[in-house]
Specification:
Number of domains: 2
Bound molecules: glutamine, zinc ion
CATH class of the largest domain: Alpha Beta
CATH architecture of the largest domain: Alpha-Beta Barrel
Distance between the termini: 81 Å
Shape: globular
Number of helices: 26
Radius of gyration: 26 Å
Strand order of the largest sheet: 1-12-11-10-9-8-6-2
Structural class: alpha/beta
Helix content: 25-40%
Length: 762
């Protein structure tokens, strides 16, 4: 393929930034959940985890990857692991490092993630713009970072003993501190970055230990550099890597960045720092190569080039990648081919899928196949042979296009995207109580769904079970005294998959699980073609629920942005175009619900914040298409129909403009874990629509007391007019059990009642 002689050919290596940790059959989920229930011991859990780690090393070696990472495993989250490693644990929790035995140590570790009576867990939030969630460390001026754990060292040794020399992966110090937040005991204005010097000492101690254990290279992940905040922290960046780079006994350092380009300024800092390698994401945006050119290449610093998309499922265009890598060779002396980010974000193995259409399968690659791609690219570049990869790129299958959908969208005018501004939304009552949609999914339901799927339970019987479940959920809500009821979503396996299964242009997988948080895994569908709705998707269930009660039942749909965010989406057209197709399909569903007499319709945009570009300059364009797609879905209704939307935990302050632009009548959001900050922000700007700040955290099994919920609601009414306030949990209840759900909702209804009676005029 080229004429360079073998002697002058560069040595090109291959690696991946990380690999899924849940196991091919979600072994980690099963094992940790069984441990939490008390059914297995810490030792049993540790054994399963060690097997999974070994499986990953073996899979990467088998794929032909040269440099294998370790410490990519976590029982819950790598940011939590880092906090525990350096003793950065808030004082309401006993430190896992001081536990007297392994059992107690693990118990304390999981308590940080899941909470325990009297101690709410660490806040959980999205890892950059992915659907993975990390736990937010809480730091304060009295925090003393010090190396108290040995997880990276232990896992490095364990791998080495099994015959795998590895490169331990750590969350970088800058990313760690910029993702952390000030604990409640920190003074106003104090920021975690103040701990940088102390933390660097702790990292230095760890690097020395890793070197002593035989590690020759360590990867420090600094994805924060793809954000505006990281790009503005160049002084700190320099401090980090000057300090760590100048240690005498240390492994080689690879500073890895991903989820976007880092800009020429940050790249210059890294190039000049005494580190051996820099990892760049060359997939997410087109600027990485420009940055490299702007700094005149990396010189003797090794470039770890992320050319294989680590977070989407499409095959790499190998000839294009070879050409790009060829260009990169001019900009660096040493090159490693890699994934754009950790493969944590994609399913493990395409070979496990047996029922995908062949023309779709031909376009796909999961983690194992992507590992094979980097290995292949490494070989092609260093051996100069193109054997083993197809040089032809498959054209898109024509069946992926739907001319009717395109024509309908083109014919729509601006009126399709706007509701009347003078509409009068029928009031329910101040502090009206409701839920976000789903009720607990019982084991019986899951079993019935599985049996139905396997053809062992007749559709009519399955539907009868669902109706019985709806009856029970409606009765329960009436009995608890909620104001706006839901049907409970028993028919849904997942809020995106349920719709994807019924929409054209979408495929679903059988085993394509991806970790979302802790033991929670999701199976994102694949949006590969033009989207259309052949038939109503939810009307049967919502109208059945409404037929069982005189109270209003709220219909539940998943919004366009969320349908994209939690799927693997085609990359051959702008996301906004794809979102509008989904919006159009939902618009038809909304119209059918309204026609069937449903007066409250919720279109969940749980992921609105998640897709928000990491850099501010790109946000207005994103919000424009996100808002358009939502409004396309919701603007066809009469003014007497109440449009609700729901968004999951996020820093909402960044998108209040977006929330307003969606023009929903009621927006319910997470607020419990972030202490009603949003309500304060909305109050300040005189927000005039309905808002339901989540009054308790459904991600934890803890039942909030009446007093606790009451305090949140009182805080909320001090900022926002009670007529606009709704009381609801902060997310759907499907992952909870019935006992705790019922108690929590009763407490919520009672708290709302107490606050309501004190309102002026009541
Ligand atoms: N309506 C969905 C539910 O209640 C919303 C879930 C979500 O926001 N993640 O489950
Ligand atoms: Zn939610």
């Amino acid at each position: 393929m080229d004429t360079t002689s073998a002697a002058s050919r560069p040595s090109v290596r291959s690696t991946v930034h990380g690999y899924p940790r849940i196991g091919p059959a979600r072994e980690l989920k099963r094992a940790s959940e069984s441990y939490w229930k008390g059914a297995t011991t810490a030792a049993e859990l540790d054994t399963i985890a060690a097997d999974l780690r070994r499986g990953v090393y073996a899979a990467l070696r088998e794929a032909g990857v040269d440099d294998i990472p370790s410490n990519t495993f976590s029982y819950y989250d790598q940011v939590l692991d880092t906090a525990v490693l350096f003793d950065l644990v808030p004082s309401r929790f006993p430190s896992p490092a001081q536990a007297e035995d392994r059992e107690e140590q693990l118990r304390r570790y999981f308590a940080l993630a899941r909470g325990e009576q009297g101690a709410p867990p660490l806040e959980m939030t999205k890892w950059f713009d992915t659907n993975y969630h990390y736990l937010v460390p809480e730091l304060s001026p009295s925090t003393r970072p010090r190396l108290v754990g040995d997880k990276p060292v232990v896992e490095f040794r364990e791998a080495a003993e099994a015959g795998f020399p590895t490169r331990p992966v750590l969350v970088g110090p800058l990313t760690f501190l910029l993702l952390a937040k000030a604990g409640t005991d920190a003074p106003e204005g104090w920021e975690p970055i103040a701990l940088l010097d102390g933390l660097l000492d702790a990292y230095a101690a760890l690097l020395r230990e890793l070197a002593a254990a035989g590690a020759t290279e360590v990867q420090l992940d600094e994805p924060i550099l793809a954000t505006d905040e990281g790009r503005a922290a160049l002084g700190h960046l320099e401090r980090c890597y000057q300090r760590l780079g100048s240690l005498t006994e240390r492994p080689a350092l690879l500073v890895s960045t991903y989820f976007g380009s880092i800009g020429a300024d940050a790249l210059r800092v890294l190039k000049q720092a005494p580190v051996e390698a820099v990892g760049l994401d060359l997939v997410t945006d087109a600027e990485g190569v420009d940055d490299l050119t702007a700094v005149s290449g990396l010189g003797s610093t090794r470039l770890v080039a992320g050319v294989v998309d680590g977070r989407n499922v499409w095959r790499t265009d190998l000839p294009a990648a070879v050409a790009e890598l060829g260009t990169l060779l001019a900009l660096t002396d040493e090159l490693t081919v890699s994934t754009s980010c950790s493969l944590l974000h994609v399913p493990i193995d395409l070979d496990a899928e047996t029922s995908l259409a062949p023309e779709l399968r031909a376009a796909l690659a999961f983690a194992r196949q992507k590992a094979e791609e980097v290995a292949l690219l490494g070989r092609v570049l260093s051996e100069g042979s193109d054997a083993g990869y197809r040089s032809d790129v498959e054209p898109r299958d024509p069946s992926f296009t739907d001319a009717r959908v395109r024509a309908r969208l083109d014919a729509l005018g601006p009126e399709a995207y706007a509701r009347p501004q003078d509409r009068v939304v029928p009031a329910v009552r101040p502090l009206a109580t409701t839920t976000i949609g789903s009720f607990p999914q019982t084991p019986e339901l899951r079993r019935a769904r599985a049996a139905h799927r396997r053809g062992e339970l007749a559709t009519e019987e399955y539907k009868a079970l669902l109706r019985a479940e709806i009856d029970r959920v409606i009765t329960l809500q009436e009995e608890i005294g909620l104001d706006v009821l839901v049907h409970g979503e028993p028919e849904r396996n997942d809020m995106v998959q349920y719709f994807a299964e019924q929409l054209e242009g979408y495929a679903t997988t059988e085993h394509g699980w991806v970790q979302s948080y802790g033991s929670r895994c999701v199976r994102p569908p694949i949006l590969f073609g033009d989207v259309a709705r052949p038939a109503p998707m939810t009307v049967e269930w919502i109208t059945y629920a409404q037929s069982r009660t005189d109270k209003p039942v709220k219909g539940m749909l998943t919004g366009p942005v969320t349908m994209l965010a939690w799927s693997f989406v085609r990359t051959d057209q702008p996301l906004g175009e794809t979102a509008r197709q989904v919006g159009l399909a939902l618009r038809d569903e909304v119209a059918d619900l309204e026609r069937a007499g449903i007066r409250h319709i919720q279109v969940d945009e749980a992921a609105l914040r998640e897709l928000l570009p990491l850099r501010a300059e790109r946000r207005p364009a994103y919000l424009r298409w996100a808002v358009d797609a939502f409004r396309l879905a919701t603007s066809g209704v009469a003014s007497t129909t109440t449009i609700h939307t729901h968004m999951c935990y996020s820093e909402f302050n960044q998108i209040v403009d977006g929330i307003e632009a969606l023009d929903a009548d009621v927006t319910s959001v997470e607020a419990a874990r972030s202490r009603m900050e949003l309500v304060e922000a909305l109050g300040r700007r005189g927000y005039g629509r309905g808002i339901g700040p989540g009054v308790y955290d459904i991600h934890s099994p803890r039942v909030p007391s009446v007093e606790e919920v009451e305090a949140s609601l009182r805080l909320a009414v001090s900022h926002v007019d009670a007529a606009h306030l709704w009381a609801n949990p902060d997310c759907g209840l499907k992952t909870r059990g019935y006992a705790e759900t019922e108690q929590a909702l009763r407490n919520m209804v009672e708290a709302a009642r107490r606050v309501r009676v004190d309102l002026p005029g009541t």
